Amino acid sequence: MVVDHPIKRDHARFRKIVKGKIRDNLRKYVSEGSQIVPKGTDKFTIPMPSIDIPRFRFGDKSQGGTGQGQGQEGDPVDGKPDPNGKPGQGEAGEGEGNKELDIELSMDELAKILGEELALPNIEPKGKKSLQSTVDRYTNIGTSGPDSLRHLRRTYKQALKRQIAMDSYDPNNPSVVPIRRDFRYRAADTKVEMQNAAVVIYMMDVSGSMGDEQKEIVRTESFWINLWLKSQYKDIEVRYIIHDATAKEVDEQTFFRTRESGGTLISSAYTLCKEIIEKDYNPNEWNIYPFHFSDGDNWSAEDTKVCMDLLDNFIFPVSNVFCYGQVESRYGSGQFYKDLTAKYGEKNDQLIMSKIKNKEGILDSIKEFLGKGK
């Protein structure tokens, strides 16, 4: 019988309360962006306001009852300063600071909160093969191995069987002493497992009309998109492309810090995306997710036609879904969104479009991108 320790129950209840608080404030965390701090490969730290413990205070003595004694009405019973009382005075400043508690959550826990808040369905890879991987699972028992893998129960059982068979076991003096040939060890059983792999290719316009605010929106949105996709796939890779009139592949840090002043040729990014997929990602083995973020400006209608050809003839057929996010900018015309709508309509199985007006619109945009479960 397993006993549920009170401390474990309290800890589980505390975690449940914390997750509820995070879910209630998810929109604030997403819009502020910098609140979620990665800690290692699959852990994240989230600051939360501390929770004050309830305190008794003196009431009106004429009411009678428990807790009456010397003291003024409103004073804490234990005589300690009330953290919710009047702020202190002093040359260093007035009032209380904001008390925060850092909460550590795993990637899966944070992704689950996002999925529950946005009602996101689990992704079902379609038209893609699974990749094979070999996994060692210690499900067998062997007669050799390192001491660290020795199976004590099996070793004891083998020694007991040997002593009984040799008539050397005394029930009145039940001493079982294993010898070398009794030792048993956990042995690995190598199995071939099937797992899905995905690649996310982010493309972003870094021309002069895309300012720091627009790039911060892309950075925050891509963080949460990656978080959800990593919870859905065992193996995921992320590639980054920046473009103005030309496109180039960069690392993550460069992707969010680069700003150019040239014109915009969106087809340059789509062409490079096509080359990366052709070189490294067989569509029969990979789930492919291209995301393009822009303020909607393109150099010419002719280049827009080139983009449409690349989408129709290559990117749509090999991708699970192609996502276009238009970040509102005072300098951007938003024409590319209109062109995509004119050709493909508002609803298309291979194309998901989203307009992101500001940071408060990030969560709604994520739901639009991921809400179809593709």
Give a brief description.
With 374 residues, this protein is an alpha/beta fold. Helix content is 35%, strand content 22%.
Could you list some keywords that capture this structure?
374 residues; 3 domains; 22% strand; alpha/beta; 6-stranded mixed β-sheet; 3-stranded antiparallel β-sheet; 10 helices; Rossmann fold
* CATH-derived architecture of the largest domain: 3-Layer(aba) Sandwich
Q: What is the CATH homology-level superfamily of the largest domain?
A: von Willebrand factor, type A domain
Binned strand content = 15-25%
Could you estimate the helical fraction of the residues in percent?
Answer: 25-40%
Strand tally, please? 11
- What strand order characterises the main sheet? 8-7-6-9-10-11
The radius of gyration is: 30 Å
The span between the termini is 43 Å
The biggest beta sheet is recorded as: 6 strands, mixed
**Total of helices:** 10
Order of helices and strands: HHEEEHEHEEHEEHHEHEHEH
The tally of structural domains comes to: 3
Shape: flat
Q: Averaged pLDDT, please?
A: 79
CATH class of the largest domain: Alpha Beta
